[in-house]
Specification:
With 174 residues, the protein is of the alpha/beta class. Helices cover 20% and strands 17% of the residues. α3 crosses α5.
């Protein structure tokens, strides 16, 4: 699109961008300069003051009869484009086992509280589900028996959860 080549208001405002990607370049008639100038519709910066037609739109100039018929007001609201894929929706799969990995480094003393809460969740009641505790320090690894006993005591009646799916991994030795 070459706005500078246009010599009349009518030919200026009839310029359309080429098919394909819209870069926002449009032509606007500047009556004070009697010239057609480019502007980018995304920046809203007009090349001349009279292109604003008193702030109501473009292209400017009372002498441009075609411009008066160009509607630049708010367009009708349109629906946003619909995605071509289906949006994510949580659909529980009751038969699928899960694995939960908990890193532990220097605070294994309060880990059993989180284990008792975690072991009450339905996914961990499924066959094959497990909780892996990755011990990153010797202190944490040495307290694994105390963690197991505290979790088993916390899971006793009335909660009726099981600490059986808890496994320990010594990450400090690796």
């Amino acid at each position: 699109m070459s706005c500078a080549r246009q010599t009349s208001c009518e030919s200026c405002i009839q310029q359309q961008p080429s098919a394909g990607v819209d870069f926002g370049i449009r032509c606007v008639w500047c009556e004070s300069e009697t010239a057609c100038r480019e502007y980018n519709k995304f920046t809203h910066r007009f090349p001349c003051a009279d292109a604003l037609r008193g702030g109501g739109g473009y292209p400017g100039g009372a002498s441009c009869a075609v411009a008066a018929r160009v509607s630049v007001g708010a367009s009708q609201p349109s629906l946003p484009p619909q995605p071509s894929y289906s949006p994510f929706a949580y659909r529980p799969r009751t038969k699928q086992p899960v694995s939960v990995v908990i890193p532990s480094f220097t605070r294994p003393g309060n880990l059993h509280h989180q284990l008792v809460w975690l072991l009450q969740l339905e996914p961990l009641h499924r066959r094959g589900s497990e909780v892996l505790i990755s011990h990153g320090s010797a202190r944490s690894w040495n307290e694994r028996d105390a963690i197991d006993h505290a979790a088993a005591a916390g899971c006793a009646a009335p909660l009726r959860c099981s600490a059986a799916p808890v496994r320990h991994v010594d990450s400090a030795a690796a």
